Amino acid sequence: MCKMCMKHGAAGKWYLNAQNYLKETAVESNAYEYLEDLWGNLERAYLQKVYGLVNMKWVSKKIDSPLLGRVLKWYANKGFTRDGRYKKLKPAANQGHVGQIITLDEAKTIVIEKAETVAKALCPCKHFNRGIKDYCCLAFSPLLEVIPKLPRYIPETGIKVIDGDQAASFIDEMDKKGFVHTIWCGPVPTIIALCSCEIPSCGALRLRSFDLNTCWKGEYVAINDPDKCIGCRKCASVCQFGALRFSPVINRPIIKPELCYGCGLCCNRCENEAIFLVDRNDLAITRGRY
Amino acid sequence: MGKLKIWIDYSKCQQPDDCGKCLQVCQPAVFSLIFTDKDYHDPKNWKIVPMFPMLCVFEDKCNFCVNICPESAISIKRKK
Fold it and tell me: Is A99 exposed, middle or buried (0-12, 13-18, 19+ CB in 10 A)?
């Protein structure tokens, strides 16, 4: 078990701990002040992460260089470690605003049982990466109080309060479209949002290709059972991370566990329950690699 | 192999929030719609910047963003 879950999970996964959704946790971790800072600087932080952590042009050009780039990335990743600390974070560099990929069942449990208020909101990432205004984020109570103060991405008409069952069917709908579900905290351990997005449009997931761990991989890894599999190829089109490929030679999919993010999309597509999820820490190749 | 440069002529690209065609046509999503330093709460002051030029894989073989821009404001060049 990781340090994050030990500290904030109450003998379980950190995002399934109902305490992290409460108002008291938000007040204790100074979430309202932090979120206002974060929400005001959302893409500024986004710029700084890739183009330099301090706002200097010279540093920003070095992020891809072999030696200095490694140091810069290590420094940037300090804000996204799984050790569960939440003090001394810089909202201007998005530190403390980390996410993790969760499965469909977990997402439904969260919106039905754990979260206090759920609201459907327009997605800022899709807006600034693709220019599309689309509902795909579910915001929880601490974020709901901050959004109306800074209405540049989400105007008053762009947010709708819904109940748990509506939210669950909304997540179902997004899953059918092929989006992965992510849970977001800001700052650790307050949980503020549940998003459904895809890899180049999500502001944080795409930064994984620059070795910045803004969104952790899920707690699971997908494994294919060749006896139950019938080779229908339904799973082959959904993987966003390049971990699953259908092999015509053996007529079965091939899953690379080191690339798998554990989102469970391929499992949901499978009608014969041939693909199943195992704990990430049970496999030697993926142990502790989030 | 020099560095790839993507230029956007901001005198031609006036309403990026309403248009946004280059954002959608680019497969690796090189462009991003971000605020300017003047007033970032006003969508009229936003602009499109080539945020990740290192992701531009097709270079001048694809040119979709250059062709789709109604104001022809985008140009791609490789520095020698």
Answer: buried
